[in-house]
Amino acid sequence: MEPKFSAIAADVVLGRDVKIYSFVNLYGCAIGDDSKIGAFVEIQRGATIGKRCKVSSHTFICDGVHIGDGCFIGHGVMFTNDKFPKAVNAAGELAGPDDWTLLQTHIGDRVAIGSGAVILCGITIGDDATIGAGAVVTKDVPSGATVAGVPARVMARGGR
Questions:
Q1: 3-state secondary structure of 32
Q2: Nearest to 111 by CA among 131, 123, 128
Q3: Which of 32, 35, 61, 152 is such that its CA lies 20 to 30 A from the CA of 47?
Q4: CA–CA separation, 83 vs 138, rounded Å?
Q5: How far apart are the C-alpha atoms of 133 and 131, rounded to whole Å?
Q6: Rounded to an integer, what distance in angstroms lies between the CA atom of residue 92 and that of residue 112?
Q7: Residue 113: beta bridge partners?
Q8: Nearest-10 Cα torsion for 134, 67, 65, 28
Q9: Number of H helices, E strands in the chain
Q10: Are 143 and 151 in contact (CB under 8 A)?
Q11: What is the DSSP letter of 141?
């Protein structure tokens, strides 16, 4: 499938049979074999997506986010990578790379993240976890757990 009106930088590493839909912005990231990237998605430099993943439309995956194999990322999911973002530094100048701290986020294998979820930085979501639609995930999620709410709380353990 030939994406239309998409920006895919030369430094993007695409696995075999990756499908990319229109209006996508990819730069400096890596996407594994057989994954699908929906329309209106941005994946930034330093992010990694595993094999056989589905990333739904209007999702933002920033630097420092690492998604395992076989994951489902719903529509409009937002990831963050800085706990204290600011537009300007202490001198009042536009903030640059030295004015913030990148915090890595790790998503295990076979994780399902519902539409509209917000995943804060510096956490780990374990294998086979489920994140409910609209959840705001502020801390680690154990493998096999289902979380929902604002902030997200464990609703069930042991997988889907």
A1: coil
A2: 128
A3: 152
A4: 10
A5: 7
A6: 41
A7: 73, 131
A8: -130
A9: 0, 21
A10: no
A11: B
What tokens were used for 59?
Answer: 């999702």
Domains of the chain, CATH where assigned = 1-160 (2.160.10.10)
Q: What is the number of residues in the chain?
A: 160
Q: pLDDT per position in the chain (160 positions), as tens?
A: 566 677 899 999 999 999 999 999 999 999 999 999 999 999 999 999 999 999 999 999 999 999 999 999 999 999 999 999 999 999 999 999 899 999 999 999 999 999 999 999 999 999 999 999 999 999 999 999 999 999 999 998 875 5
Q: What is the DSSP string of 113-128?
A: E-TT-EE-SS-EE-TT
Cβ–Cβ under 8 Å, residues 72 and 53: yes
> In angstroms, rounded to a whole number, what is the distance separating the alpha carbons of residues 148 and 99?
33
How far apart CA 85 and CA 46 sit, in angstroms, is 18
pTM: 0.93
Distance CA 6, CA 40 (A): 9
**Alpha-carbon distance 58 to 77, whole Å?**
7
Please tell me the distance from the alpha carbon of residue 48 to that of residue 155, in angstroms, as a whole number: 28
Contacts of 92 (CB under 8 A, 6+ apart): none
What is the C-alpha end-to-end distance of the chain, expressed in Å?
A: 32
